[in-house]
Amino acid sequence: MDKKKISLVVPMYYEEKVVEECYKRLTEVLSKIEKYDYEIIFINDGSKDKTLELLEEIAKKDENVKILSFARNFGHQSAVTAGLKYVSGDVIVIIDADLQDPPELIPDMLKYWEEGNQVIYGKRKSREGESAFKLFTAKMFYKTLNAMSDVEIPKDTGDFRLVDREVVDVINSLPEHNKFLRGLFSWVGFKQMPYEYERKERFAGETKYPLKKMLKLASDGIISFSTKPLKIVGVLGIISLVLSSIIILYALLSYIFNLNNLSAGWTSLMITITLFSGIQLLSIWIMSEYIARIYEESKDRPQYIIEKKINFKEDK
Questions:
Q1: Are 115 and 244 in the same domain?
Q2: Within this chain, do residues 100 and 245 fall inside the same structural domain, yes or no?
Q3: From CA 244, how far away is CA 272, in angstroms rounded?
Q4: CB contact at 8 A, 151 and 187
Q5: Tens-place pLDDT, residues 243-262
């Protein structure tokens, strides 16, 4: 009887300082799970340092290591999406290279999969080595996302998870380009469970998710899973109409009863103009985000371009 297979998807972007340690830790864990074969798919997301060079040296010595190298940087979600497309295992683990999510947890997560759970997602009990600002913004990220989203996305989770092949096949079949994967895994359903763990400090290097990318990720999540911002535009319009009606009524009463002179209204006039201008620009911005997403999808460009494949027997 053929062994079942575990596939690891590991995106990498400027990770030359962690490549060897990451490979060492992953193989130490996987080699001890004797009843499973395994493969590790590293995705080089356009790194210009020695990340790819080091990965190629490892792949020459270990045929279980496979590499997808992008023509340029396409982003973390695109890298994971590419890895999911090329996996050949019965069960798939998504894990970052920085070792903040300990690979030593994989055997326990695998046991829950063997019990019939199809998605076991990592839920962070604590986050070592992260600033108070990062923790606060992460908390607000999930609060805002769940307030806006039509699908509940578990708090304190990332992309670290163990997933059944059936679920991955469904994710791969979804046609959208800008995939917010942790939201999609919640959206597709199936039998899911959290796995709580202590998130460690990054082994080496710097975070690849600064505030700018976190805001982009939050925007992708909200736009992908909710139309509530568009409804907010309608609410702002109603508020504007009510306020303008009050101002018109006040102006008429002031004129009829000569409550004040014309020159006294300069401050209120400026406040009114700036208020309504702000509301209009905010509304246009919200709508433009959805229009931009439609535009991106309509172009039907690939989500990533693979420049090099290593140790893959068949193209997909």
A1: no
A2: no
A3: 8
A4: yes
A5: 767 767 776 776 676 655 54
Record the tokens describing residue 250, joined without a space: 């006040």
- Indicate whether 80 and 103 sit together in one domain: yes
- Do 117 and 202 belong together in one domain? yes
The answer to whether residue 217 is domain-embedded is no
Range of the domain at 61: 4-206+301-310
Mean pLDDT lowest among 73-82, 143-152, 303-312: 143-152
CA angle 170, 84, 45 (to 5 degrees): 140
Reported as a single tens digit per residue, the pLDDT across 52-84 is 889 988 888 888 999 999 989 888 888 999 999
Pair (180, 236) in one structural domain: no
Of the listed ranges 99-103, 156-160, 256-260, the one predicted with least confidence: 256-260
pTM: 0.71
Mean pLDDT value of segment 196-216: 63
Handedness of CA 250, 256, 258, 262 (dihedral sign): positive
Higher-confidence position of 221 and 33 = 33
213 in any annotated domain: no
Work out how many domains the chain is built from and give that number: 2
DSSP 139-168: HHHHHHHHHH-SS---TTEEEEEEEEHHHH
Please give the angle made by the CA atoms of 210, 126 and 38, to the nearest 5 degrees: 80
Give the count of alpha carbons within 13 A of 206, CB side only. 3
HEC letters along 221-283: HHHHHCCHHHHHHHHHHHHHHHHHHHHHHHHHHHHHHCCCCHHHHHHHHHHHHHHHHHHHHHH
Instruction: Please choose, from the candidates 65, 76, 89, the residue with its C-alpha nearest in 3D space to the C-alpha of residue 168.
Output: 89
Task: Using DSSP bridges, classify how beta strands 119-127 and 157-164 pair: parallel, antiparallel or unpaired.
Answer: antiparallel
Strand pairing category for 91-94 and 4-12: parallel
